[in-house]
Design goal:
The chain is mostly beta strands. It contains no helices and eleven strands.
Length: about 120
């Protein structure tokens, strides 16, 4: 079982930036997809951004503001979040899909955007 360790959340004012990190506890040899989801109070969990194969998929509501990266194809992904708005307030979850359909979730990290 792959464990994911998330960091970088917190509180920021509108227009500010945060960088989330997600590191896998062990080396994962076959990552099919890795990225971030979020869940706001009273809402369903939704995709924010994910690396799948050689491409990155972004939700429409973060395009141009968030950037997902996985330097050197290591077991760590970063989500750079710029121009944050109160609507971005949510618990953010890291997810990895690996091997023959296995998946792991991080414990979730709070991001709060408020003045």
């Amino acid at each position: 079982q792959v464990q994911l360790v998330e960091s970088g959340g917190g509180s920021v004012q509108p227009g500010g930036s945060l960088r989330l990190s997600c590191a896998a506890s062990v080396r994962v040899f076959r990552i099919n997809a890795m990225g971030w989801y979020r869940q706001a109070p009273g809402k369903e969990r939704e995709l924010v951004a994910a690396l799948t194969g050689g491409s990155t998929n972004y939700a429409d509501f973060v395009k141009g503001r968030f950037t997902l990266s996985r330097p050197n194809a290591k077991n760590t992904v970063y989500l750079q979040m710029n121009s944050l708005t109160p609507e971005d307030t949510a618990v953010y979850y890291c997810n990895v899909n690996y091997g023959l359909g296995y998946a792991s979730w991080g414990q979730g990290i709070q991001v709060t955007v408020s003045s």
